[in-house]
Amino acid sequence: MGSVNDGRRWKREPKVETRCGCKAEMRVHVHSDSGRWIISYFQDVHNHELLDDRLTFMLPCHRKMDAAAMEQMNMMLRVGIKTPHIYSSFVQTAGGFQNLPFLKRDMYNQIGKQRRLIGGDATACRKFLESMAQANPGIQLDYSLFGDVVVFDATYRKNKYMCPLVVFSGMNHHNQTIVFAAALVANENEQTYTWLLQQFLDAMKGKAPGCVIIDGHGAMKKAIDAVFPGAYHRLCAWHLLRNATSNLSNPRFTSEFKKCMLFDYEVWEFEDH
Predict the structure, then answer these.
(1) Cβ atoms of residues 183 and 246 within 8 Å
(2) pTM greater than 0.70
(3) Chain segment 68-81, per-residue pLDDT in tens
(4) How far, rounded to the nearest angstrom, does the alpha carbon of residue 183 sit from its chain's CA centroid?
(5) Strands 177-184 vs 37-43: parallel, antiparallel or unpaired
(6) Which residues are CB-neighbours of 148 under 8 A, at least 6 positions away?
């Protein structure tokens, strides 16, 4: 018995002929001097029945997922909800298929488009950063001088790609914030943070910070314990102030507490306060 196609190249069946000779059309051109769009010809007489108004949302040019719908879809995908169930949720919220400006197929297409876009953009971004690293090695110099204390911050998020932006920063001798490195990560679990810190350590020629300031994220702490075992962990001032405000609800204490953290005191002055 031979193979299924016997080596022959399969051809697609011809598509159904849908043209009907309708003369309805509109011609538009751009005026060379004013730049305005001008309709030079318009014919609205059709030789066929028009689509019912209730079904126009199914036309490809009318189907579109707006930014809010894509954001909600991505949030549901991240928690493990399947695409058919997500679409059913949209349908129920909208009160029926006819009230939803896109189909399930459009949702699948959008998911595929996002995945392709992330791959292409990530490659372009990586190449750009590699070229910048070769042209400007100053970041490693900054870290060698001021990298004893590093802030590990992952509170930023890129809406388009839903990838947390991690920033490694510190402070120079002019009391100015300087950025040592930044990274986009796919998730915020311990394995990802451990890998990221190892890459950071390699990029900085093996120098580990003496103190790392974080926002209290559990996965961060475990990753730091694994990669920087000799570093101290400290909560950032913003989170400390937020905790003091939410737990005590005493503005006077919060104000004095802020002074103790941020003001430049001698040791005896700090202990006195």
Answers:
(1) no
(2) no
(3) 888 889 888 888 88
(4) 12
(5) unpaired
(6) 209, 210, 211
